[in-house]
Design goal:
Layout (H helix, E strand, L loop, with lengths): L1 H26 L3 H6 L6 H13 L6 H9 L4 H28 L6 H8 L4 H34 L9 H51 L2 H11 L12 H8 L9 H8 L7 H33 L9 H9 L2 H39 L5 H23 L10 H21 L5 H20 L5 E2 L2 E2 L4 H19 L11
Antiparallel strand pairs: 1-2
Helix pairs in contact: 1-8, 1-14, 3-8, 3-11, 3-12, 3-14, 4-12, 5-10, 5-12, 5-16, 6-7, 7-8, 7-14, 7-15, 7-16, 7-17, 8-12, 8-14, 8-15, 9-12, 11-14, 13-14, 14-15, 16-17, 16-18, 17-18
Subcellular location: Cell inner membrane; Cell membrane
Family: Belongs to the sodium:solute symporter (SSF) (TC 2.A.21) family.
Function: Catalyzes the sodium-dependent uptake of extracellular L-proline.
Length: about 500
């Protein structure tokens, strides 16, 4: 059995590295090629790359686990994310693709903001780059912890002489580093495309097989109703604050650099509608599949008297129990794909900020394209090793910081990106005020514990006050500092 799993995983790793080598030959001769794939992504690749880099292990571990434990009420997070992603494609994608090219052919979000607001260029580039590198190092560590725990849970027999957690940590990091450092953005995007396909196939196959084994939808409903009728309710125990905190996860999309950078890399603005259709179709199927895994998996466990210690491992448990080893290997590769697609995107965005917004800004303004690409590769490695250090303790709370980092990015960059693309009256001072206010509000909210309990009641997700405060800061400061004509947006 273990041999079949190992064969599937080995084939997956070879495919990822092969794609990296292909991308190395195609698009790593200059910074635009290494960091944005030469702005030549097709709609399908851009759409699935954005989706795969977004969802990470949360799609196959976190969401099914939440539904397994609490029922359909947890689906509101997925609904909020779907609506947020759709609005991101409608509001941000076409404008960002046009304006990043018009304003100095910007290769990073900090560079775009600096070009858009030259009066506060240095401040915007430095502060936004610090936020990106700091949060993405933690994000990357969380992904590596996921890879380590996957090996610890499912592959212990494959590495009996070693610590499976650290083996998984280094294998995950090593493969991601190999194709990201070699092939840059094109490698990351193409591997994301393949990984997105693997993920969605797994999320269609697994709930279908589980439902078949359970006896169908009616049998699943009967089983869950006998355990707790609330498991199939979208409103069981859900108050207004809980509902608001769940659906406002979607606000985070507007400020996630590793997602919106895909919009910058599209071939043209004309490709946005097709990419949006592909991306949202993929996301809808994937979310429904994840919901199916959690709900049908709970019924399967109840019917068969199986003990599941950690709800977030339900995907791994079902893969091991219900499928041939080769298929199990494919399904576990899908889980690794979810983890690795996000890690590679975060590493590359962090690398681009270190290269373009630190090295070229302060150390070597006249660095050659070859030098910049090599510095980009070195930066990928540096961020990865820092993340490995954070992930070295499997009992660390790194994974718990993911929702906080999502809120931090969403609040710091969300209002900033939306208004910089759509409002002509925005100023550089307003942009800097919004960036600092959004990040600070999220950190203060978390530090005070108000995301867990607010004024004695239910906690409020920190992205809500952070997003509102940043938006208000941008508008107020921009109106106070607007003294004349400002650069207009390219596509409104």
């Amino acid at each position: 059995m273990q041999t079949g799993i190992l064969v599937s995983l080995a084939a997956y790793f070879v495919l990822m590295i092969g794609i990296g080598l292909y991308a190395w030959r195609k698009s790593t001769s200059d910074s635009e090629g290494y960091l944005l794939g030469g702005r030549q992504l097709s709609p399908g690749v851009a759409a699935l790359s954005a989706g795969a880099s977004d969802m990470s292990g949360w799609l196959l571990l976190g969401l099914p686990g939440a539904l397994y434990a609490s029922g359909l009420v947890e689906a509101w997070i997925g609904i909020g994310l779907f609506v947020g992603a759709l609005l991101n494609w409608i509001i941000v994608a076409p404008r960002l693709r046009a304006q990043t090219e018009e304003f100095g052919n910007a290769l990073t979000i900090p560079q775009f903001l600096a070009n858009r607001f030259p009066e506060r260029a240095t401040g915007l580039r430095v502060v936004s780059a610090i936020v990106i590198v700091a949060f993405f190092t933690v994000y990357t560590a969380a992904g590596l912890v996921g890879g380590g725990k996957l090996f610890e849970t499912a592959f212990a027999a494959l590495v009996p002489a070693a610590d499976p957690y650290f083996t998984g940590l280094w294998i995950t990091a090593g493969v991601v580093l190999a194709y990201t450092m070699v092939g840059g953005f094109l490698a990351v995007s193409l591997t994301d495309f393949v990984q997105g396909c693997i993920m969605v196939v797994a999320l269609v196959v697994m709930p279908f097989v589980v439902l078949t084994d359970d006896g169908g939808i009616s049998a699943v409903s009967a089983t869950l109703n006998s355990v707790d009728p609330g498991l199939l309710s979208l409103t069981q125990g859900l108050g207004f604050i809980g509902f608001l905190s769940a659906v406002t996860w979607g606000l985070g999309y507007f400020g996630q650099p590793h997602i919106i950078v895909r919009f910058m890399a599209l071939r043209s603005v004309a490709d946005v509608p097709r990419a949006r259709f592909i991306g949202m179709s993929w996301m809808g199927v994937a979310l429904l599949g994840a919901i199916g895994v959690g709900i049908a998996g709970r019924a399967y466990v109840e019917q068969n008297g199986i003990a599941v210690e950690d709800p977030e491992t339900i995907f791994i448990v079902l893969a091991d129990l219900l499928f041939h080893p080769l298929v199990t290997g494919f399904l576990l590769a899908a889980l690794l794909a979810a983890i690795m697609s996000t890690i590679s995107s975060q590493l590359l965005v962090s690398s681009s900020s270190l290269t373009e917004d630190f090295y070229r800004l302060f150390l070597r303004r006249n660095a050659s394209e070859r030098e910049a690409v090599n510095i980009g590769r070195l930066s990928v490695a540096l961020v990865a090793f820092a993340a490995i250090g954070l992930a070295a303790d499997p009992e660390s709370q790194v994974l718990g910081l993911v929702s906080n980092a999502w809120a931090g990015f969403g609040a710091a960059f969300g209002p900033l990106v939306i208004l910089s693309l759509t409002w002509r009256g925005m100023t550089g001072s307003g942009a800097l005020a919004g960036l600092v206010t959004g990040a600070a509000m999220v950190m203060v909210w978390i530090a005070l514990g108000w995301n867990a309990a607010f004024l004695g009641g239910t906690g409020i997700y920190e992205i809500i006050p952070g997003f509102v405060a940043a938006w208000a800061a941008i508008v107020i400061v921009s109106r106070l500092t607007h003294t004349g004509p400002v650069k207009t947006a390219a596509a409104e």
